[in-house]
Amino acid sequence: MDIAKPFRRVVKNAGLNSSEVVRHTLRHTAITHLVQAGVDLPTVKRISGHKTLMMVERYAHQNGPHIQTAMDKLSKGYRSSA
Description:
Blueprint: H1 4-13, H2 23-36, H3 41-48, H4 53-59, H5 64-81
Helix pairs in contact: 3-4
C-alpha cells in the first residue's frame, strides 16, 4: 500500500510544507522523543530498525533541556553518595 499521497494530503491539511515534512521526518521525531524520554539507545535502535548505534545517535537530536536533565541526574547522584 502506498501512503505517499494520503501522507502529503495530511501534511498539507496541517498547514505544513509537504516538500519539507516527509515520512522520514516522523522517524527522526519519534527517535528524538524516545531518547529525550530516557529510553536507552540499544532499545531505540531495536524499535527504529537501525543497524548501528551510530545511526541512532545521528537521528537522536538532543536539545539543551535533555542534556540539562542528564546533568541534574548526575549531580543528584554525587550529592547522595557524599
